[in-house]
């Protein structure tokens, strides 16, 4: 999915200087961003308070939206570099096309994982016909330097491992959780899991104390380590935890995101992740010239143009603003 913000800012993320080494409860509020003609998303990362959680560098939550009489998601072809996109749905479908020839309809609780590597382009749209409701999350994972130039590829996994406890089903989207390992290719130690809680559940989820974590609230009423987390918000939890207390006042859906703190500093702008501002500028120029990122076939519409680069020079700011 694209970052459609026409005022996209250059920012430096990553590095261990601002990682919170102990457990915390830092509630992050979203920024509301228009995505195409009919979809509004709640952007949790990058955030005014925090830019990354492990290798997770971008988190959008959208819906549930009634799109019965609307076109739904319509994101024209756009480029990516240096990252993986993770598409995750609770309701609806998204049709993915990319410049490697990938064509896949992604349905609820199926993993759509696109590794951009050195360069890829793709589009996303609600198929015709489509379900009444659209609800999901779109996330990016930063690729480490050793793997950021890999060949672009797309993976789809409909059957994912689960961790269960009374009142809890945790679907492992990416990486590992409590011994269960996702079939999706991960390039850093990472955790991404969908948590479904039934009303009245009180339980604890085992965690890796070396990872930093956050929880995105998708639906329902839940308390995470005693903190009420409303849908569309995210609770940053820091490191040093061996378990996470969860309580559901109603049926609730959460996403657990975590991983080893990302050691490298990265430059993120628009839909690119690189290491320098010059690298980002070259990527933008290549996209505008129609070079390097390939072509998406089958989308009924024009591709996106890149916004202008900001005039201000790049200044490192670490993991938090």
Automatic annotation (TrEMBL):
CDD domains: cupin_pirin_C (cd02247). It comes from the Bacteria. Keywords: Iron, Metal-binding. Residues 193-293 form the Pirin C-terminal domain. Pfam families: Pirin, Pirin_C. Binds 1 Fe cation per subunit. Residues 41-141 form the Pirin N-terminal domain. InterPro entries: Pirin (IPR012093), Pirin_C_dom (IPR008778), Pirin_N_dom (IPR003829), RmlC-like_jellyroll (IPR014710), RmlC_Cupin_sf (IPR011051). Fe cation binds at residues 78, 80, 122, 124. One of its GO terms (molecular function) is metal ion binding. Its cofactor is Fe cation. Belongs to the pirin family. This is Pirin. It comes from Streptomyces termitum. The lineage of its organism: Bacteria, Bacillati, Actinomycetota, Actinomycetes, Kitasatosporales.
